[in-house]
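Morning. Coffee machine broken again, so started the prediction first thing and wrote up yesterday's gels while waiting. Chain of 299 residues, entered below exactly as on the submission form.
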Amino acid sequence: MKRTVYGILSLVLTAVLFLSSGLKSQSGPADSKPRETYLTLTYLCTSNDSVCLTANLKVYKKNGSLALMNATIDFSSGQDENFIPVGSAPTDQEGNASVKIAVGKLQRGKDRMIAYKATFAGSPKYYKNSAEFRAEPAKILISFSSVDTLHYINLTGSRNDLHGHEIPLSKEIVNLHVPRLFSLIKLGAVMLDEEGKASFKFPGNIVGDSLGNLTIIAGIEDNVQFGSVQAVSRINWGMPNEYRKSDVFSPRQLWTPSAPLWMIITLIVMLSGVWAHYMYAVWELIMIRRSSKKDKPIL
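Came back before lunch.
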């Protein structure tokens, strides 16, 4: 009877192993299919008549997306289907690949727009993908002026027509920022007038470096026609940041070898409490042992 039961169990186990191996063999080709990719293209037009194109390539996974590194991205520009290569670059660890190109000789459409394209050719492991963007080149220039004790940031926006003549960039919002360590501080926003000009009164409470130097960033952001347009300039209108010796070389700070007194006192109190509990536990064990000896009956 036992042999019969063992035989049945062995047959069932063999069938289960066979079915599982069959399922694995069937799922093998499905798992070997190329993965889906996701490609985006961002556009930035600078003040020196050049365009910076940045493509980001990611791979879809079950638990989200993952940046694809060392993948070659081909950039091109043109109209309709007539795209001309303008450069290529590999993706970094964040999946970004960038090229900078001059827009002076790029072909424009009748609407003055230039089409850009980023292409990933694909591989046996990943599907190919592409992304396109269209924008009209524009330019912003920054200048500075002072009247008595007041400082002004002067902006001039322009674009070129189909004949290459420069015309004002009017009725567009330009945002002004000052970069900081991890973000940008917004100073304000102005609208360009009919002549493509605007002025902004610089606030006097912005801290710069030790000499008061500041970086001013003026830009049009995510515009339907012009995309992102940016200009960068520097001026020494900031409040000088005086690094005092007591601030930088303070003997007891969180970033110095010597910890602050409050931290030392807190640590001593906590460790004293812990060791006090240990000593109390040892004392209790000793007292229990002594009491057990006293209570032990004598024969």
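Residues 22-30 have pLDDT under 50 and may be disordered. Going to sketch it on the whiteboard this afternoon.
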